[in-house]
Amino acid sequence: KTKSRTTTLTGNGGELHQTAGKNHPELTTNQGVVIADDQNSLKASVRGPTLLEDFILREKITHFDHERIPERVVHARGTGAHGYFELTHSLEKYTTAKILTETGRQTPVFTRISTVAGGSGSVDTPRDVRGFAVKFYTSEGNWDLVGNNIPVFFIQDAIKFPDLVHAVKMEPDRGFPQAATAHDTFWDFISLTPEAMHMVMWIMSDRTLPRSLRMIEGFGVHSYRLINADGHASFVKFHWRPKAGLQSTIWDETVKIAGADPDFHRRDFFDAIAAGDFPEWELAVQLFTQEEADQFPFDHLDATKLIPEELVPLTFIGRMVLDRWPDNFFAETEQVAFCPSHIVPGIDFSNDPLLQGRLFSYLDTQLSRLGSANFHQIPVNAPRCPFANNQRDGHMQMTQATGRVAYEPNSLDKDAPREQAVKGFKSMAEPVAGDKGRIRPESFADHYSQARQFYASQNETEQAHIIAALIFELSKVEHPHISEAMVGHMLHINEELARRVAVGLGIKVLPVAPPVLVEVQDLPVSPALQLIGKM
Ligand code: HEM
User: Fold this and answer.
1) Cα(277)–Cα(272) distance, integer angstroms
2) Nearest C-alpha to atom 19 of ligand 1 is from which residue?
3) Distance (Å, rounded) from C-alpha 464 to C-alpha 459?
4) CB of 138 within 8 A of CB of 107?
5) Which pLDDT score is estimated for 145?
6) Mean per-residue pLDDT for 115-128?
7) Given ligand 1 and candidates 112, 265, 338, which is best to mutate, with the most ligand atoms within 8 Å of its CB?
8) Looking at 12, 23, 66, 75, which residue is catalytic?
9) What is the spatial distance between Cα 499 and Cα 286, in angstroms, rounded to a whole number?
10) pLDDT number for residue 13
11) By CB distance 3.0 to 4.6 Å, which of 11, 48, 72, 491 could disulfide with 498?
C-alpha cells in the first residue's frame, strides 16, 4: 500500500481513497450529505447487483447524463475572454449613450470569437467567417455588438438565413462535411443567390484563414443609429481593428495546422492571455446622415454592401483589451448569450431587413439553448448595473421576489420599480410610409459592383489565392452545373478570374453569364460624395 497523508489504498478491492482534511473540503451530494465512499456503488452483496436505493450513485449519474446542452445552431465553436473597453474619443455630438461619450471610463466586456458552420467540437481552422461578438456591461445596461470578421453578409433578408445555414452545414443525409464550404449544397445555394457574390469574394480570400484570433478585424456589419440629446439621429457602422495587425495563414499551412492541433486558435488565445500579451482592438466608427446615405450609389440597409472608407472615413474612438480567460469555459464561453437587440439608450436599430430578423432570432434560440426564460441571470449574461422589473418565476429563477406586488402601476409598494421617461430607452420616431409587401429596394439587385471592387482591390498574390480557393472548393462539387453557374457569376466580377477558375476546373467552354438586373456605377465616387463623414 502507498503511504501518504491523504491517499491510501484501503478499499477491499485495492482501490484508492483520498480523505478530506487540510485544504480538501468534504465531498458531498448536491443536498450537502457528506460522502463516505465515492469509489463503490451500493451493492446487495460483494458480487451482487447494485441497489436502486443508492441515491448517491443516482444523483451523480443523473447529473452527468444532463451535462450537455444544445450547441448554438450556428457559431457553435468559439473562444471567449473577459476584458475592458475604454473610450478615447467622445461621440457626444451624436449620441447620449454613456459607453460612447464618457472618455477614460473602463467598461467590462466579454468577447467571443467563433467559427460559423462547424459544431462545438470541430477544428479551429476551417475556411470560414469568424463571429466577433462583444458584450459591453455598460452603466446603462448591456450592449451587445454581435458582428463578424467580414463587413458584409451572404444574404439581404433574414428570411433566407435558415436556407443559407442548411446549405452550409453538414448535409442532412450523410452528416458531412462538418465544417467546410467545399460541398455541393453550399455552392448550389450560393450559385442561385447572386446577392452572395460579394461575400463569396471575401470568404475565398485569406481573411477566412486567420493567423490568430488576435489578428482579425471585426465589423458590426449593419448600420445602426445613434441618437443625440436633441433627438437627432445619425447612422453608424462599427469596426474593430486588431492591434497585432491583420494576418492570415496560407491554405497549405491551414491544412497542416488543422491536423496538428485542432485547438490552434483557442490555445493561442489562452497562451497569449496567460503570458500577459493581451489581445487588443481599436474601435472605429463610420458616421453619416440620412441625406448623405441618400447619395450613396447603393443602399446602406443592404448587408451585402459595405460603405467604402473613401466615402465615409473611419473615426477611431476607443480600444478593447482582453486580459482574463474565463474561470470556467462552460459557465461563461458556452452560456454567454449575445443578442443584437441588446442596445442602450442613445443607440437604435436601422431598418436593414437582415438586422430586423436577427432582432427576433437570438433571444428565441437562446430560450431553447439555455433552457429557461431566466438565462439573463447567469452571471456572464447579467447586467452589472441596477436592474429591476416585475418579471417573475420560470425555470431556474435565482432572484428572491419579496413583497406582494409584482405589477405596475401599483399603490401598495413604495419601493417598486417605476418608469423613467427622461433617461429611459426611446426608439427613434421615424416616419414610415409606403405599401406593405414582400419587397426589396431596387438597388439591392446590384449584386456585382462591390464584388468587383473587392476583387480589384486585391494584389496579384491575393487574387491568386482567391482563384486557388475557388478552384479547390468547386473541384469538390459533384454536380458540374453548379460550378459552371459559379463561373458564370465570376464573369461579372472579373473575366480573367472566371477564365482561370474555369481552366482550373477543366471547364472547356465558358458558361453564359446570368442576366444583370441593376448595374450601379463603379466607385471611385464623385468628389461631392467624398465630403461625407466630415460632419
Ligand atoms: C450566432 C453574427 C446573421 C441567427 C451568431 C454569433 C455571431 C453572429 C457572432 C455568435 C454569438 C456567440 O458568440 O454566441 C451574425 C452576423 C450576421 C448574422 C454578423 C449578419 C450580419 C444572422 C441571421 C440570423 C442569425 C440573419 C437569423 C435570422 C443566429 C443564431 C445564433 C447566431 C440563431 C446562435 C445564437 C446562440 O445560440 O446564442 N451570429 N449573425 N444570425 N446567429 Fe447570427
Assistant:
1) 5
2) 147
3) 9
4) yes
5) 99
6) 97
7) 338
8) 75
9) 37
10) 86
11) 491
78-87 and 17-18 as β-strands: parallel, antiparallel, unpaired?
Answer: unpaired
Query: Which residues are CB-neighbours of 31 under 8 A, at least 6 positions away?
Result: none
Instruction: Indicate the residue type of 202.
Output: W
pLDDT level of residue 535 (50, 70, 90 thresholds): very low
Q: Is the shortest distance between the CB of 453 and ligand 1 below 6 Å?
A: no
Average pLDDT, the chain: 94
Task: State ipTM.
Answer: 0.94
For residue range 242-280, what is the model confidence (pLDDT) as tens digits?
999 999 999 999 999 999 999 999 999 999 999 999 999
Of 142, 148, 381, 494, the catalytic one is 148
Question: Could you confirm whether 75 is annotated as catalytic?
Answer: yes
Strand (E) positions, 116-258?
Answer: 130-138, 141-148, 218-219, 224-227, 233-242
Decide: 326 and 333 in contact? Cβ < 8 Å: yes
Instruction: Evaluate: CB of 342 within 6 angstroms of ligand 1.
Output: no
How many Å lie between the centroid of ligand 1 and the Cα of residue 115? 11
- The CB of 371 under 6 Å from ligand 1? The reply is no
Q: Mean pLDDT over residues 54-62, rounded?
A: 98
In the DSSP assignment, the letter for residue 381 is: T
Best mutation site among 161, 207, 221, 358 for ligand 1 pocket (most ligand atoms within 8 Å of CB)? 358
Ligand 1: does its nearest atom lie under 6 Å from the Cβ of 158?
yes
Distances in whole angstroms, Cα of residue 470 to Cα of each of 134, 354, 457, 487, 500: 32, 26, 18, 10, 10
How big is the CA angle at 217 (ends 130 and 294), to the nearest 5 degrees? Answer: 100
Neighbour tally for 426: CB within 10 Å: 13
Task: pLDDT band for 142, please (50, 70, 90 cuts).
Answer: very high
Q: Is the pTM of this model over 0.90?
A: yes
**How far apart are alpha carbons 387 and 263 in whole angstroms?**
38
Q: How far is CA 345 from CA 289, 349, 416, 419, 420, in A?
A: 19, 11, 22, 14, 12
Q: What is the pLDDT of residue 519?
A: 73
Q: Quick one: cell of 353? A: 431587413
Burial (CB count <10 Å: 0-12, 13-18, 19+), residue 13: exposed
d(CA 85, CA 280) in angstroms, rounded, equals 10
| Cβ contacts of 425 within 8 Å, gap of 6 or more | 343, 344, 345
